[in-house]
Amino acid sequence: MKKIIYYLFLVLLISSCKQSSGPWIDLIDGQNLENWKMIRQSDQFKIENGTLVCSGNSGFMLSEKAGKVKNFELTAEVQTSPGSFAALVFHTTENHLNDTPEGYQVIISNSPGNMNAKETAVKSGSLLGIRHNYFTVANDGEWFTLSVKLIENHVETSINGVKVMEYTQPRNPWRNTAFSKRIFSEGYFGLETMAGETRFKSFRYMTLPDEEYVNPPVDQEWDTRVTKLAEQNFPLIDFHVHLKGGLTIEQAIENAQKLGINYGIAPNCGLKFPVTDDASLSVYMDTVRGKPIFRGMQAEGREWITLFSPEAVAKFDYVFTDALTFTDYKGRRSRMWIPEEVWVDDKQQFMDQLVGKIEAIMSQEPVNIYVNPTLLPAALMPEYDQLWTPDRVARVVKVLKDNNITLEINARYKVPHPQIIKEAKKAGLKFSFGTNNSAADLGQLEYCLQMIQECQLLPEDMFLPPLHQEKPVLVKGLPEKITG
After folding, report:
1. pTM, whole model, 2 decimals?
2. What CATH number labels 21-207?
3. What residues pair up with 431 in beta bridges, in sequence order?
4. Cystine design at 317: which of 80, 274, 312, 465 (Cβ 3.0–4.6 Å)?
């Protein structure tokens, strides 16, 4: 009996040792880079006042001290500078910079970007070419903690303890030829500098034990679709999400990371809505501070411009509005999504009135995005293509172009129709995707993805929030009233 007990104890001990994690190992000692192998542009890496400084472009070095690692947890204390762009590389080899790179790159970049420079628009915590974040959680000039944890086929990245990206690799993931070796296996850690200056004052890791294969949380078809968009640097962002139907911000973030979609969450701001003044706006902003999302504002009705200060509005990453609420030519307040509050005395007259309202709103209100665009009352939607004549479409496109306003492609209402999107693209408008959910289910932007193909949209056609000083409310201010 004693032998059996001893044998069981020995098995448990061996099993415990096999499953234990390794100790934390520092890869930067603040003195020299003797444990790093310089692969390219060694002069772009140096120790300065105890910190590792990476600067310039095309610089790359490997950690020889760590050797080849499979499962691991890694943390680094990092500081970015305006315009800097770097990457923490894992599962790589000396051939990382070849035409067929090996390993994965976790991006380190916090400066605002736009899709005209799509290669550097992705932000810290992104898995380059696989899953992209376009929001920022950390700021340039501030030290932040970047963490990466990989077990078998599942990786997560966090910034200051907040998870910003997760990815579960299927058994047979789609990869194009250039990324064919971007597969979880084992390999070296590396640091790559591509622009500006990035500083590290610590960089440490520990090995983790092998575990069972993680079943992907999404299907193979969806994984392929999202990965193809990331490989093209096409931003998959839903800027029009509401916390409605029981949806919490935690659930939205979990869904975003599972699907690989960035979300912009927006409260309804206006008369008789949840956010009605600067004070309630400030309370709302406290609830979303530090969250891995974009912070949007839905400007409701035409009275919103009288309820908020420019400084309060400028706290949001972007502002959007629609033309569904207006006072008609008989002085009646019309809300087009409510059949009882829509009066169509004459179809053509109604359309001319609507286009005039769109022109007045978009030329005078300081917004970034026109949402629920071209939506008509339910009774008129069957005649959408006939009522939206070329002349009316041209007028709407012109006012958006003249005022640098983005046109939303709305997944819920499936508007605008393709011919309008094509005319807007021809005019050089930017586009955004939006759900405008009324329930907790956000879907998968099906209509928007369809329009990418049908209208041949490119990454550079897509909207990203502007720099703070370029926000419309700071440039144009708030008008005293809306005319027209």
Report:
1. 0.93
2. 2.60.120.560
3. 407, 462
4. 465
